[in-house]
Amino acid sequence: MSGALQVGSVPERLAHNRYALDEDESHIVVDQDVVRSTGCAGVIARCCPAHVYTELPDGGLGVEYAACLECGTCLAVAPEGALSWHYPRGGFGVSFREG
Ligand code: SF4
Predict the structure, then answer these.
(1) Which of 23, 35, 42, 44 sits in a 20 to 30 Å window from 56, CA-based?
(2) Domains contained in the chain, number
(3) Which residue's CA is the nearest one to ligand 1's atom 6?
(4) Extended strands (E) in the chain
């Protein structure tokens, strides 16, 4: 017996999370004009661990907010004004669970 902790892969551990989707309101809104003018779609899309964003062919940024882990990384890399982000309304969003 090795005694090593078996934690599983990141995708396996993330699969234990639960999401309560707010279908009436996205907690992420993209300002496409700012995204296109600053050329930031790629860096925002690549930084997100949950693959919430998609870099669009026209330089815009697609968003599927349902899988957001609420980590805040996109806010740290996005130029000012590119994203409007707030935590989901009460009762919605991600619930982390031990995997
Ligand atoms: S807060 Fe984190 S998980 Fe959510 S969209 Fe931004 S980078 Fe992705």
Answers:
(1) 23
(2) 1
(3) 74
(4) 18-20, 28-30, 53-55, 61-63, 83-85, 93-95
Centre of ligand 1 to C-alpha 14, Å, is 14
Whether the full predicted model's pTM is greater than 0.85, yes or no, is yes
Q: Is residue 4 part of a domain?
A: no
Protein residue with least CA distance to atom 4, ligand 1? 68
Per-residue pLDDT band for 52 (boundaries 50, 70, 90) equals very high
| Rg of the chain in Å (alpha carbons) | 16
**Would 8 be classed as within a structural domain?**
no
Q: 73 CB less than 6 Å from ligand 1?
A: yes
CA of 84 from ligand 1 middle (Å) equals: 12
Q: By residue range, what is the domain housing residue 25?
A: 21-86
Among residues 96, 89, 90, 5, which one has the least CA distance to residue 49? 96
Token digits for 27?
């907690």
Asked whether residue 91 is assigned to any structural domain, the reply reads: no
Q: Which CATH number covers residue 66? A: 3.30.70.20
